[in-house]
Amino acid sequence: MTSVLDGPRITADMARELALSQKVCIRPLLRRVHDRATDSEAVVALPCGSTREAVCPPCAHKARVLRMQQCQEGWHRTDEPERQPTEQLNEDQPDAEDQGDDDTDRRVRSTRRRQDAPDLPRVPQEDRTIGRVFATPDGRAYRPSMFLTLTMPSYGAVTSSGVPADPAQYNYRRQALDALHFARLVDRFWQNLRRAAGYKVQYFGAVEPQRRLVPHLHAAIRGAIPRATIRQVVAATYLQLWWPLFDRPVYVHRTPVWDGESYVDVDTGEVLPTWDQALDRLAADPDGRPAHVMRFGRQVDMAGIIAPSPDADRAVRYLTKYLTKAVADTHTDPDGEPDPALEAHVDRLHTELRYLPCSERCANWLRYGIQPDAAGPGLQPGRCSSKAHDREHLGLGGRRVLVSRQWSGKRLSEHKADRATVVREALLAAGVVAPETERLAATVTLPDGSPRFVWTDTRPDARTYARVLLQSVAERAAWRAQYEAAKAAKPVDSGPATLPPADPG
Fold this sequence. Notes:
- The protein is of the alpha+beta class.
- The chain folds into two domains: 4-56 and 435-489, no CATH class; 78-252 and 274-360 and 377-407, no CATH class.
- It contains eleven helices and 14 strands.
- The chain has helices at 12-21, 57-75, 103-108, 172-180, 182-197, 227-236, 275-284, 310-319, 340-355, 412-429, 462-489, and strands spanning 29-35, 40-46, 134-135, 141-142, 145-150, 203-209, 215-221, 238-241, 257-258, 263-264, 292-295, 300-305, 401-403, 453-457.
- A hairpin with a 4-residue loop joins strand 9 (257-258) and strand 10.
- The radius of gyration is 27 Å and the shape is globular.
């Protein structure tokens, strides 16, 4: 009987649609594998691993489910996570409590708090990361946690669709700068909250754009903190950007050039001041002021969460709702007609972001007559390599998920391994060896100790692409059937009932 894999009528588009329906990667990295033991070759599909739904919905879905597990596993812990060496801690966020001010701040900033910012409350510190236990009058104990949302201030009036009511009066520059440095303001908030709460507050935060494309933070917080304390910390938190002023561009129609050692004015031959020289001038100026000051907006949403509960499950899904979408596409309807006003809003914000400096090493400093830190040849204003300048990211070029170091005590890769272990143990309990544990592994060797499998790149044609996709679909279906049968034969404890099911694919 002829297999469907060999059917002449199966096109690449048909295979792609089938893979989508079965949650199989639609843009796999195809590699040719030579089995030296049998002298045979096969084309193997490796998932692309994209986190964007517009690129690969199945891989983006897997990434979101993994983040859901990470969030839920650390949120309502009743025991302290195991302390790990610094190099093995969570890779998502350098923890705020271990960061001081950077070299630039220490060099030029005033050590006094701003007069227009309230003082921070200070309380004795406890060496714990889990929340307190409370008891009800009837003797029941519970350990509440929190769900927090922080927003940025207004940059001008907007309509119900999130676009400026008067684009000419809208402060695009401030919105762009706030987006570029939003993560730093969030870091400062966690520093301040830990001092005011009296314990090592742990968090799982997701950075998302509001409908007006302004970044805001949704965060799960382990433990309960008085709402008045949080409001006080929000009001007292600010970020001063101690950079050379960049209010007006120096070079608009011409660009400084690299002379082999420095960037110079193409007309006069004058060497542009280096980054260190620009900071020295700022530090020597008694009237020096920060280049930018940013604060959170007044709107602060807080909710107590007790797990397990439907509220906790909904909060986890909401936290990870937009992680698979690009910032510019978060609130657009992929099946609807484009909104010209929204497109114009995105274009105008992107234009502002393109030429603003995102860091000390940003090429855009040349536009303001200053050599970036560690400058080298090839820099051009408007062409900084940071993703923050891209239209897709609109200033949020860093990670969209910010996780504290002692949230779960695991790296994201370890959470992924945990999910694979659940599948493997279920199959082994039913007498089935998970095929991926030995198949084509680099550790499999021949009797002489050399690798059995040799991997090389390949560029398949459309027919090969369709065939490999169909093979992946069939393979996933077989694994799923084995996994479901194994669970029915001998259920395996896969953690809290609210966790997303383990994926055998």
